Amino acid sequence: MVKISNYILTAVLVCQTLLIIALVYHNFHISLNNIHPTKKKLNRSVLTQPVLTLSSAKRTDRGTLQSVNKQVQLNKIFYNRVPKCGSRTIIELIKTSAETNKFQVHELKEYSPYFHEDEYNYKTVETFEESIGPFLLEGHYHFLEFSKYNGTQPTYINVIRDPIERMRSFYYFRRFQPDHIRDMDNATRYRSFDECVSKNIPECVEPLGNSAEEGYYKIIPFFCGHEPFCRKPTRKALDKAIYNVENYFAVVGLTEYLKETTEVLDYFLPLFFSGIYETYLKKQKNVEVKYKTIKKSALLDKTATFMRDLLAIEYEFYQFIRQKFMNQLTIVRKSYGKKLSI
């Protein structure tokens, strides 16, 4: 009888041990799935596994991100803004948020070129390293890998738009926008975007044009970086840009959905942007008029078709960002019990 009791006791202990192991494994498996979600295909090969993404970051109160990548600072933000993607509106909203949420905003004055030599990059990194408390730096600046300059990577944010619309906006902005008019002869100033394309003028049909403001290849370099290959429209540059977005950009919004962009910023980065959505709603009509590019003529269908082919790699990146942004917006809407109806 004693032996039988011992056998029964041993069997019970073994079962309990196996149950504990099963529970631990189950919880661990769930944790891994939360950190490394299954990646969805986006008309391309499997993407690089994210490090700093909404799905791979731990969430705390009101959506605050806690990075899995310990080398990314969440209390320091670099808004390396792409030109003509609604950044003037975003900057006005950021300055209001800075007053409300008590963080510093520093503006980089040197906008052109958008990539820089090592000496300037070291100074940019030092600006972050010497800052205290919540801090945001903004300026037109290609993605910078801070580790190359002995710095700790900040969290990046940005906003992009339809590549053709971004290009057209910049084209007319530098010709007619008060306080931003560039020096050029009248024939160049009053030439339409369609004519610029049809006559194969470098400003419109070459990747880089003749200056930092010209050319059609402008969005991807802001996410790829300072390496020379980033300034060429290649698959290598696209892949690097996607890798950097997945690892270092908390939010990349869309000009076409500026209101929704403020929703996502408000929800996921409340340390900086709590209340920015309400601020946008109050200022919406005013900023839409204030920052709208003037004298922008309609686009011919043949120009749109030609440019869409020319901008194919930029559009692939745009669609990647659009899908990622919509996924983020879905998370926000679900958390507030709203349906995604856009």
TrEMBL record:
Keywords: Glycoprotein, Golgi apparatus, Membrane, Signal-anchor, Transferase, Transmembrane, Transmembrane helix
Gene3D superfamilies: P-loop containing nucleotide triphosphate hydrolases
Subcellular location, principal: Golgi
Keyword Membrane in record: yes
SUPFAM superfamilies named in the record: P-loop containing nucleoside triphosphate hydrolases
GO MF annotation: an example: sulfotransferase activity
InterPro entries according to UniProt: Heparan_SO4_2-O-STrfase, P-loop_NTPase, Sulfotransferase
Cellular localization per UniProt: Golgi apparatus membrane
CC terms in the record's Gene Ontology section: Golgi membrane
Transmembrane stretches, start-end: 7-28
Membrane topology, as annotated: Single-pass type II membrane protein
Sequence similarity: Belongs to the sulfotransferase 3 family.
Protein name as it appears in the record: DgyrCDS7905
Lineage of the species this protein comes from: Eukaryota, Metazoa, Spiralia, Lophotrochozoa, Annelida
